[in-house]
Amino acid sequence: MRKLLGFVLEIFRITLIFGILGALGWEGLIQIYTFLGAAETYSWSGAIGIVMIMFILYRNKWQFRGWMKTKNTQKLSKRIVISIAVVALLSIAAPIVLGFFMSE
Predict the structure, then answer these.
(1) What stretches in the chain show pLDDT beneath 70?
(2) Which of 100, 57, 63 is nearest to 49 (CA)?
(3) What is the 3-state secondary structure (H, E, C) of the chain?
(4) Whether 33 contacts 95, CB under 8 Å
(5) Which residues of 79-89 are buried (b: 16+ CB within 10 A; e: fewer)?
């Protein structure tokens, strides 16, 4: 019963963290995209980048501070972190670059 409660609390915690930080990050990106004249059609790729960054943060920091403790939790390797971070930054920058090239 205790493991089930820990699991439920951890799912609630993940949903809350991703919901709040995702919404704040998305709102910040929308403001930046609007200011820089980014392509609105592709702004969804910024949301994917935010989720990727939050995934890295969860796997390397937040999962160790939660209610659910297991022996199998590990940090992501540096190679995977760098790969995901590069893809995330490219997907965040894509609407800005596309907006620049499409406006001319």
Answers:
(1) 64-71, 103-104
(2) 57
(3) CHHHHHHHHHHHHHHHHHHHHHHHHHHHHHHHHHHHCCCHHHCHHHHHHHHHHHHHHHHHCHHHHCCCCCCCCCCCCHHHHHHHHHHHHHHHHHHHHHHHHHCC
(4) yes
(5) eeeeebeeebe
Task: State the pLDDT at residue 48.
Answer: 94
Tell me the one-letter amino acid at 98.
L
pLDDT tens-digit series, residues 41-58 = 888 899 999 999 999 998
φ and ψ at residue 85, rounded to 5 degrees:
-65, -40
Domain ranges in the chain are: 2-102
CA-to-CA distance for 39 and 88, rounded, in angstroms? 17
Q: Give pLDDT, residue 69.
A: 65
